[in-house]
């Protein structure tokens, strides 16, 4: 809160008056992040004509976002509150739900790819979706830990190769 007070130049009482609590302020910050830069994956899944293109864009944009110079590295939803004090468990669970929803969106896009004949009918979309979600979460952690952009792009490309192995012929 001290950092926020210093950055905004507002008294903490005014910040609490605007948001009600630290938890609500944090939820608002996550919502803003997802509506803007953090929503790159949802936009790619919606906008790209094929799953391969959607996930290629998602992996590329993830690495680019997670490694921006002069900005915190990683994904705010992945790195925030993965471990926290007992009083913050509701936020921890809420963020876990947000991550589960992102995984569900990935799985739904893969189901669509199967229906449209892009992926083999026998594709295990649950496992593939969980895998792609895990890679995206891992990219965030690796970026936060300082792994260079080039290596993260290579990792994303390996995940895309796995997706390509399930393409219908």
TrEMBL record:
Residue span, Tetracyclin repressor-like C-terminal domain: 58-144
Keyword Ribonucleoprotein: no
Keyword set, alphabetical order: Transcription, Transcription regulation
InterPro entries given in the database record: Homeodomain-like_sf, Tet_transcr_reg_TetR-rel_C_sf, TetR_C
Pfam families: TetR_C_13
Protein name: TetR/AcrR family transcriptional regulator
Species of provenance: Pendulispora rubella
Lineage: Bacteria, Pseudomonadati, Myxococcota, Myxococcia, Myxococcales
